[in-house]
Amino acid sequence: MTIEELQKQIAEELKIDKNSLDSSSSENPLLMQKYINLFLRESNVLNKLQSQFSSLYKDKTIFYKTDFKYVPDNFRELNAFVEGDEEMIAIKEKIANQNSIVKFLSDTISTFKDRGWAIKNMIDFRRFMAGE
Question: Which of 25, 54, 89, 93 is in the most buried spot, having the most CB atoms within 10 Å?
Answer without folding.
Answer: 25
